[in-house]
């Protein structure tokens, strides 16, 4: 049982949030650190009560061990969940911001095409569509990632193109991304489901 106590102490000390809490991520705030330390201490106290209970039987001993288990469980739960529930703050997004919005003009939701060539027309407002070759992020600039049925079909700096697709229903997802090909802090996405007849 002492081995269990030693291992528990080492795990708690290793996970203690000096800079970032291991379960919430991001830089720790003062309340997060305080709640984590309180939960860790309660866990240790509960384990100590359980392990220091003198051997034997009886209602008093069982009650003592039960209280130790409860204190340890509450402490460990507080350590795991407390910082996120009570002391956490949403980490600042490190991705570029944008006010841009994107709309799929074609295909319209539920539209049926008589052939396999499907015209895609997109409209971006509040942002400039740059060339895919521009990989350095700039304010108000990005390009388009076009996916069909969950697979990337095109990375483009053009708001209009034609996709050749097999017959059947399809889902189009278009995202306006930063020049480095990664999403903006608030993702800019639009989707549409349609059917191509093929031919």
Low-confidence stretches are: 10-21, 23-27
Q: Could you name the CATH homologous superfamily of the largest domain? A: Immunoglobulins
CATH architecture of the largest domain: Sandwich
Number of domains: 2
- Rg: 28 Å
Largest sheet: 6 strands, mixed
CATH class of the largest domain: Mainly Beta
What gap, in angstroms, lies between the N and C termini? 73 Å
Tell me the fraction of residues in β-strands, as a range.
Answer: 25-35%
Quick synopsis:
The chain is built from three helices and nine strands; from the N terminus they run αααβββββββββ. It is α+β, with helices and mostly antiparallel strands.
What can you see in these coordinates?
33% of the residues lie in helices and 29% in strands. By secondary structure, it is an alpha+beta fold. The chain folds into two domains: 2-87; 101-196, Immunoglobulins (Immunoglobulin-like), CATH 2.60.40. Strands 2, 4, 5, 6, 8 and 9 form a six-stranded mixed β-sheet that branches. A three-stranded antiparallel β-sheet has the order 1-3-7, with no helix packed on it.
């Amino acid at each position: 049982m002492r081995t269990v106590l030693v291992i528990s102490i080492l795990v708690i000390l290793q996970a203690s949030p000096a800079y970032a809490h291991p379960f919430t991520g991001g830089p720790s705030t003062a309340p997060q650190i305080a709640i984590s330390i309180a939960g860790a201490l309660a866990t240790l106290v509960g384990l100590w009560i359980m392990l220091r209970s003198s051997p034997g039987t009886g209602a008093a001993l069982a009650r003592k061990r039960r209280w130790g288990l409860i204190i340890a469980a509450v402490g460990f739960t507080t350590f795991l969940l407390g910082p996120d529930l009570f002391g956490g703050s949403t980490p600042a997004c490190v991705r570029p911001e944008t006010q841009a919005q994107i709309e799929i003009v074609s295909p319209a939701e539920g539209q049926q095409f008589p052939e396999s060539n499907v015209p895609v027309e997109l409209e971006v407002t509040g942002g400039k569509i740059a060339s895919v070759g521009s990989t350095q992020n700039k304010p108000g600039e990005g390009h388009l990632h076009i996916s069909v049925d969950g697979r990337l079909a095109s990375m483009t700096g053009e708001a209009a193109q034609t996709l050749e697709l097999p017959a059947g229903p399809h889902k189009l997802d278009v995202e306006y991304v930063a020049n480095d090909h990664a999403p903006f802090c608030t993702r800019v996405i639009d989707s549409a489901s349609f059917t191509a007849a093929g031919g």
